[in-house]
Please model this.
Amino acid sequence: MGRHQTGLADNGAKRGFTTLMMLPGLFVTLVLILFSLALVLFLSFRVNDGSLLGAGGTFANFATIVTDPLYAMVALRSVVIAGFVTVATVVTAYPVAYYLAFHAGRRRGMILFLVTLPFWTSYLLRVFAWKIVLAYNGVLNSVLTGTGLLSEPTTAFLNTPSAVVLTLAHAYAPFAILPIFAALDTMPKSLFEAAADLGARPFTAFRRVVLPWSMPGVLSGALVVFVPTVGDYVTPTLVGGPQSTMIGSLIQAQFGKANDWPFGAALAVSVMMLTIALILIARIASTGRRRLS
Model:
């Protein structure tokens, strides 16, 4: 009986400790995330009367988004730019992650430090740095004119969608490198020897063994990059120009200058639903491809 009571006491103490450890995460999830999302969803169905929470219920905000071609065009542009950013980020991040996993050796810690070093500076500062590089009198134009490749500076680098893609790909590179590296680092090195013993050349071994093994990390990195870049508004505003206006800029304008929080919330909910739909489509397509293969 004594041992039984001691066991029950231990189990109760473990459950109490587990609950205590879960409380901070539950608070962040329920209060800071779910409550905020619920408030945005609630606002999206309100009428803007200048008050904080609006007045009455309406579907007019979503009707405007659906019927006005401006929002469809900007949303499509946002998805396309975010798609290019995701592809560029993953393609450039994969070699770094591959080197870290298989060839870095003792230099791994230093390289990981350098990969995460941009997080030590402000995101806004990094965007301004790219603006200085791409500007008319910036670093890139100075190098090209100094080497004779250009006779005079050009405005083709800044205030373009390409500048947005380049800046965002640099800013989010660590978010793609780390999950791909984590996936590759779990790969048994014996698989390389097995592939070589079966006569596979290096590229064939990479395509048939390494790449499939790393796909969970690749998909995780792509997701982590794509979702925030769809709604980014700082980078398009600073380096993109009018031709690169993304949906995040419109949302920010509604919450800022326009002071129309309900419509801004409706735009935010629409972007969220569009992103979820795209992710589900990609997941279904990926699942179907695996089944066919």
